[in-house]
Design goal:
This is Transcription initiation protein. This protein is an alpha+beta fold. The protein has helices spanning 19-36, 83-97; strands spanning 2-8, 40-45, 54-55, 61-62, 74-80, 102-105. The chain has one domain (2-107): Alpha-Beta Plaits (2-Layer Sandwich).
Length: 127
């Protein structure tokens, strides 16, 4: 299984007050579908009222982020067998959210997953 990030910036979500609850319900329905399919890992919306902080190795904290890297909007992380499946889930989320979704693939790192996870080399031989 490969982990995929499906996301959108907040500027892409242009809705009227009347549309927002409909889109929220449809988006939650897609997430529930992903959970039922066993592919959902995590997701949510970034709280834009709380700005990012940059933390350095010495523990310094500053109210900033990397240039040109603000993360806003929402995201979903799914684990899927193929990129084609990821594209289909991104399409479903795009339809529910009424805005295009960016799809990115996480690099495989067996140390990033808990022991016994579906991507554990002891469980699956990743080729």
């Amino acid at each position: 299984m490969t982990a995929y990030l499906i996301s959108f910036p907040s500027e892409a979500l242009v809705l009227t007050d009347e549309e927002f609850p409909i889109v929220a319900a449809e988006s939650r329905a897609v997430i529930e579908e992903a959970k039922a399919a066993g592919v959902y890992v995590y997701g949510g919306g970034i709280d834009e009222k709380l700005g990012p902080v940059l933390v350095t190795a010495d523990g310094s904290v500053s109210a900033q982020t990397y240039p040109d890297s603000e993360l806003t909007g929402g995201f979903t992380i799914l684990e899927l067998s193929t990129r084609e499946e990821a594209v289909e889930w991104a399409r479903k989320i795009a339809a529910a959210c009424r805005c295009p979704q960016e799809l990115r693939e996480f690099m495989y790192d067996p140390g990033s997953y808990p022991t016994g996870h579906l991507t554990d080399p002891a469980i699956v031989d990743r080729k």
